Amino acid sequence: MASQTVNAFVSLRLPCELVDSLVTVQGEHADRVEPQRPDHMHITLGFLHDADAGTLADAAAVLSGGHWTAPVLRLTGEVRHGSWRLQKDPAYRYDDQVVQKQEQVRLGIERTPELTTLSTQITERLGIAEDGFWPHVTLGLARKDFPVGDAEAMSVPSVAKPALSVELQQEITVSDFRVLVANHLA
């Protein structure tokens, strides 16, 4: 009998002030972007694809036993789009000029020394470090196709506040998650 696996990820919980500012941006673009639920907004540090119970226990131990400085989270103004889920579809073709329906609209987060240290220590210990890590928050899923220039022209908040916690979350659906472990940051 095969063991049950889940998709999980390590993430940072956003401060309330940043979430509130992002909700305002979502409202300004509600015709194009189906908003990410405010309580699910996070910065993904790394993915645990098809994680079994042992992998989840290892990740929980790393997060529970860690002591990190809370990185200050500040948006860079860079906007990207794409979809890990859509990439699995052979018919999907990424277009750098068009945000396509059901792609994620992602806003870049400044890569501070504290964020780099926290991310590197966790992802390397878990063996999930990825080349080209780009810290971001997902604003939501595109409701329809629209020009990338419109996404890049979004006015992003200037809030700069520390992350609240580092968390291990289980992916329930592409936009629904549940927290398995949380370590509040100092």
Any key phrases for this structure?
single chain, alpha+beta, 186 residues
Overview of this protein structure:
The protein contains four helices and eleven strands. It has helices at residues 16-28, 53-65, 113-126, 148-152; strands spanning 6-13, 33-35, 42-51, 72-82, 98-99, 104-109, 136-142, 146-147, 160-162, 165-173, 176-184. A five-stranded antiparallel beta sheet has the order 2-7-6-4-9. The chain is globular, with a radius of gyration of 16 Å.
SSE map:
Blueprint: E1 6-13, H1 16-28, E2 33-35, E3 42-51, H2 53-65, E4 72-82, E5 98-99, E6 104-109, H3 113-126, E7 136-142, E8 146-147, H4 148-152, E9 160-162, E10 165-173, E11 176-184
Antiparallel strand pairs: 1-3, 1-10, 2-7, 4-6, 4-9, 5-8, 6-7, 10-11
**What series of H and E elements makes up the topology?**
EHEEHEEEHEEHEEE
Spatial order of the strands forming the largest sheet:
2-7-6-4-9
Helical content (DSSP H or I, runs of 4+):
10-25%
**Oligomeric state, counting identical vs distinct chains:** single chain
Number of helices: 4
Taking all Cα atoms into account, the compactness measure Rg is 16 Å
The overall pLDDT, averaged over residues, is 93
* Helix/sheet category: alpha+beta
The count of DSSP E runs of length 2 or more, i.e. the number of strands, is 11
Shape estimate: globular
What summary fits the major beta sheet?
Answer: 5 strands, antiparallel
**Termini gap:** 43 Å
Relative strand content: 35-45%
Unreliable runs: none
